[in-house]
Amino acid sequence: MGKVVSVPEGNVHHLIRQAYNAGGDYQWAREALVNSLQAQATWINFGVDEDSFTQHGVARRYVADNGLGMNREDIQLFLSSFGGGGKTISLTENFGQGFKSSCYEWNPYGIVVMSWTEDTPHGSMIWIYYDDVHELWRLKDFDIYYEDSDPDGPPDDISDCIPPTYNDELGIDLRTFHFEEIKKAGHGTVFLFLGDGPARDTVYGDYKRGEDSNKRGIVGYLNKRFATIPEGVEVRVSTLESKAEDSDRRESKDRLVTHPDDTRYTIHTRTVKGLRSFISPKHTTGKLMVKHGTTIEWFLTEEDDTGRSGGYGPTKPAIAVQYEDEAYDYKDRPQAYRPFGITDALKNRVWLFITPPAYSEHDPTKWGVMPQASRGMLIGKGSTELPWADWQDNFYQQLPGPIKQALLETQAGISEGDSKDRRNRLARVMERLSTRFRPVMLVKNDHGRESGNPGPTNTGEPRKNTGKNRSPSTVAGKPRNPANPSGGAGDRVILNREEAGEFAGSEQRRSDGTPDVQWDARFEDEADIAHAARFERNESLNGSFGTVHFNSEFPMFQNEFHFWVNEYPRADPGEVLSLVRTVYEDEIVARVMHAYKMKGQELARDSAGRPIRIKDENIGAWTSPEALTAAVLGLINVESRIRVAAGGRFGRGKQAKIDGNKAKK
Q1: Considering the domain boundaries, does residue 258 fall inside one?
Q2: pLDDT tens for residues 477-523?
Q3: How far apart are CA 109 and CA 209, in angstroms?
Q4: Are 324 and 357 in contact (CB under 8 A)?
């Protein structure tokens, strides 16, 4: 029989450290909660060790549950084996390392584990620590004295697993961790975190990652990380905070404790309910099926759903990918909402939960998602990234009616007349490009020579060699809206090019509509404030081809506004500003539309003679906020256009008169 592959014990600590570095903040809290749930616990408490605090001034964190518990053999195996410990190990279930890799690195002094089962009612206890001399994780040996032994003499025995008892090194009685909830259930487990020394506070979590800077970080993390908490399970998190002067602020579960220096503190206890519990009950909801067998559940609240958590959870709506009961890829920034067609004005009313199919080892041919090894993120089949672009476009194309109506209401203050005039003006600007640059699209055609698959709003039949012609016009598709100036494909089925596509297609060229324009008073989000403009393809104002947002507070625009208003002091400042904005609108919209009209243009040929074409990612880079910001800087032609247009409307400006006088001299 061949030799079994194994890892030398001297290398295990390197694996643990590597896995720890791959994790994230509060990963240990996630692992502890999942372990408790897998042990069928109905009571899970992230508590504060009151005895250590009141007697020795050390604030330690423990996690207790009333799950099935571990007997002597189980508890030793679970904590002293990396990549095992009796847990199911597979791609989608467990790697046998999550709790250890997320906890060991910040607890080299040790983790005390106590567990009770029906077979071991007195409990089993171990203390695992890092032996820095031998660079190994090992179990601490305890001295055992029998009933008639001399406590000052040598021990009668030594063991690394004993029932909980008073511990001289910690100076506390560990039997107090046999909580009533554990006694009532007849089983349970407690983990006590000791950090890197006897005086280390661990109550706020992993000090190596800076978690100790946020007193409410654990409960806030769990409320964001878990979409739901299973029915019938109570999860509590206690925080140690300075005593509130106003006793009315304390809740019934809160307790007062006194530090050895006589300073009084409050132990606040909060219940973890999960991300979905923070959605306002006054909402409209629904589900959409999008690409990759994924559903998107949406919630539209009646008003802005902000500031209700008090720091114990999300403070505003969010987007999350749900896998089982957990929420991954938590996003709440405006940039996350815009590709879904949700504007900044509406984002604080919309929650999105994206649920893709889970990867199945029993059907590896089917696409699905699974947690990455650190359990900090989801990956698709084959370790691929999640298909965010497809989900965003699919949702935008099927935008639910209530959200559409809410978007229209947010646009109510925008002058339809001004918007229409702007579109007409910009359409004239784009006419020069329309005849020269019309993007290539692949349209379903049974006689076509290229292959692809339909977009989310088109349907079709897989390519078949039946010899029977099928007219593209008979295939169901999204009907063209003549009133929509953004253009469309009518009842044609538009295909995305794929080498292994199931449909035949032929190339056609199309005309796109024109983006609308909106001058924002400012770009609110920190990630946006350094940009002069941004293009949101999935934000359609009155049927436009997306929307270009300008940042009115961008320093260059402010300088331009100030200069031209001073240049024509007798003119209406509003008219001057309007003229300046108009010229910049024409410039940026022309750049955006020119980029989109280049889509599908051939760049070169590869070694096999196949065309290399301009792709969506190329256009995305050309129309990114960074690219548009660079485009408005140093535009000498814009200054010239403004000067000519302003001169015809307002007469000679101050600088023109000065230059004229200098010329006369």
Answers
A1: no
A2: 333 333 333 333 445 666 666 656 677 776 655 556 788 888 998 89
A3: 17
A4: no
